[in-house]
Structures are given as C-alpha cells and as structure tokens.
Design a protein that fits this description.
alpha/beta, TIM Barrel, eight-stranded parallel β-barrel, two-stranded antiparallel sheet
Length: about 375
C-alpha cells in the first residue's frame, strides 16, 4: 500500500512525499507585482512539502484580479521568483507555478489603462475583489473575440516558459474557482456562439488549446491542470447544467497529454467536500478516466489524507490552510502532532505577522 509519506514520480518531477502545499493567495507582492524577500522565506520554510504549488500568478497584466498578487510576465517578476525557487531547492523542495488569469473576477483599477476585464461573456459576476479602495464589486467584463484567443493562449505559453526560466519545476494551469478558463467551460457563464461556445466540446476547446501550447513549450511532464467541478467559489458562478458530463469530457481530453498530474478540488472551494445543496457528483468517474497522478484537495484531515492514498483514491493530497499555519506540516502529519492556530485576519496582505512567524514543532519561527 502506498503511503502519504512515500516518494512518488509525477511526470518529470520527483517528490519526497505526497503531501502537497496547495496554491494560496496571500497578497504580499511588492511594487511591480513581484514576490519580495518575505515571500522567499515563506516558501523556504515550507520546502518539506512533497510539492509546493505557488500562489496563483497572473500570466499578463490583463490577468490580474486582486491587489498585490504576483505575476510571471515581466523580467523583474522572473528574477524575483528565481530567488524563491532557489531557496526552495536549496532546502530540498520542489515547486511549481500556478498560472492564473482571473477573467471577469477583476476591477478596472487593477488593469492597464483602466480596461474592462475580459471573459467568455459580457455578463458581470456578483463577486467582490480587493483594490486600493478596499473591497469593491468587480467591473463588468468584455467578451473576448474569437480572434483574440490565440493571443491569450500565447500568454499562457509565454508565462509557462517564464516560470521554467525562473527555476520552477513545472507549472499548474488554473482552470478552477470560476476564473477565466472555467468561465469558458461552464454553460452557466459561457453564453457564446461559434467555436468556443455552445456544446461541451466547444466550451472545452480553449482549455485544451492552452494545455497544448504549454506542453509544447515546457513539456507535458512539467505541466498540470487544476479543476473544480462543483465549486461556486463564494457564489461567484452557478454550476454547469451538467457538471458530470462536462468534467468527464475535460479529463478525457486531458488524458491525451501525459501531464504530471490533475488537481481536483472536491466540493465547494474552502467549504464542504460534499455540498449539502448540490447535484451528486462522481469524482471516481473522473479518476477512472485519468491514467496519471491524481491530486485531491479540500479540507482533508490527516486521517482522510492517509486513507485516500492508501486506498488508491488519490496519489497526492493538497493542504491549504494547514500549510499557512504550519511550515513543518509534513512532520506534524507524520508524527500526528497538533497544528498551530490560524490567524485568519493575516491571510491577505500585510507583512511577516501571520506569514513567516508561525512556529515549528520545535518552537522555531
């Protein structure tokens, strides 16, 4: 039986264990949306994770949706991320970059020239975002034209290449949490006609084109995808009318590529793994369609994670908030040691407090 603490090879990446640090937005980028010295220390502290997935990082200036989130599209960002990856590697860890385009979950004040956010649709989201003026409703989006989509695909490929140049071991394409790629996937958001709207195959087209371009640039064995079939992520989007059929098709199409892994958020992001009010969803049906490494995520306890790997439900388990408060989480899981209390008021923005000052089991910060 495999164990949560056993090594595993995922594509071209060798991991020391199967406990993964999930991508966690912390809003601590400095001028130019670059990670600063505190971010270097934050990731270095957590390098005993089998794999770190970086906080979501925008692939272009138009991809940003939140204040002080980092990017991976400028030379300054690449250089700053290199300090992070060097620190993680020196500590024996592995780290991949999550590639992010928020689509309509943005505000014009965060975008070049005050532009409208872009999406599969011109319908606005009920979401809020954080700007220099505080929390505000997101701006109404502009529907991307079909002839703009090749440029968007190129942005993903260029960002992936930048991530490898910055020293990342791979990239994870963010196609979850109702951001841009999921705005194309779901018929509850995507109201287009033409080759990128209507049928499931058409709505999945953009994601597959992005995966194709990224794998051609950096290699399939260093590429992964994140999905969230049943999340509304704070009620920012309704579920697809037939999520099972949609995501079965997504995974079948992804199986054409020998990706490093697929990362699936089970249930409501940050909420119940099995939502009380939602149609039934068969995650095992997705797993059966995927030939490679399978990563699960969403509120897994130590016992749940150990059982998921031992039973073959998953090859890897991603932990989010537990890694915020416990830089030595893998040791704590292995020894069944208690976890630190979290300071939720320090999750987003700020300095070292609630970021790099959580103690280890030994009491060191």
């Amino acid at each position: 039986m495999p164990s949560l603490f056993d090594p595993i090879q995922i594509g071209e990446i060798s991991l020391a264990n199967r406990a993964v640090m999930a991508p966690l937005t912390r809003n601590r980028a400095v001028d130019g949306n670059v990670p600063g010295p505190l971010t270097v220390e934050y990731y270095r502290q957590r390098a005993t994770a089998g794999l770190i997935i970086s906080e979501a990082s925008q692939i272009s200036p138009m991809a940003q949706g939140y204040l002080d989130s980092p990017g991976i599209h400028s030379p300054e960002q690449v250089a700053a991320w290199r300090a992070v990856t060097d620190a993680v590697h020196a500590a024996g860890g592995r780290i991949v970059m999550q590639l992010w385009h928020v689509g309509r979950i943005s505000h014009s004040s965060l975008l070049p020239g005050g532009a409208a956010p872009v999406s599969s649709t011109s319908r606005p989201s009920p979401a809020m975002t954080f700007t220099r003026e505080g929390f505000v409703p997101v701006s109404a989006p502009r529907a991307l034209r079909d002839d703009e989509l090749p440029g968007l695909v190129a942005d993903y490929a260029n960002a992936a290449a930048n991530a490898i140049e910055a020293g990342f071991d791979g990239v994870e394409i963010h196609a979850a949490n109702t951001y841009l790629l999921e705005q194309f996937l779901r018929d509850s958001i995507n109201d287009r006609s033409g080759p990128y709207g209507g049928s499931i195959a058409n709505r999945v087209r953009l994601l597959i084109e992005v995966v194709q371009a990224v794998t051609e640039r950096v290699g399939a064995g260093r590429t992964a995808v994140r999905l969230s079939p049943m999340t509304t992520f704070g009620n920012t989007a309704p579920l697809d009318s037939n999520p099972q059929a949609l995501y079965n098709h997504v995974v079948e199409q992804l199986a054409r590529f020998k990706l490093a892994y697929v990362h699936v958020i089970e249930g409501e992001t940050g909420g119940a793994r099995v939502p009380e009010v939602a149609p039934a969803f068969d995650y095992a049906a997705l797993r059966s369609r995927w030939p490679g490494a399978w990563m699960v995520n969403n509120g897994y306890s130590r016992a749940d994670a150990i059982a998921a790997v031992a039973d073959g439900k998953a090859d890897l388990v991603a932990f989010g908030r537990a890694f915020i408060g416990n830089p030595d989480l893998v040791r704590r899981l292995r020894e069944d040691a208690p976890l630190n209390a979290l300071r939720a008021d320090k999750f987003y923005g700020g300095g070292a407090e609630g970021y790099t000052d959580y103690p280890t089991v030994d009491g060191r910060a």
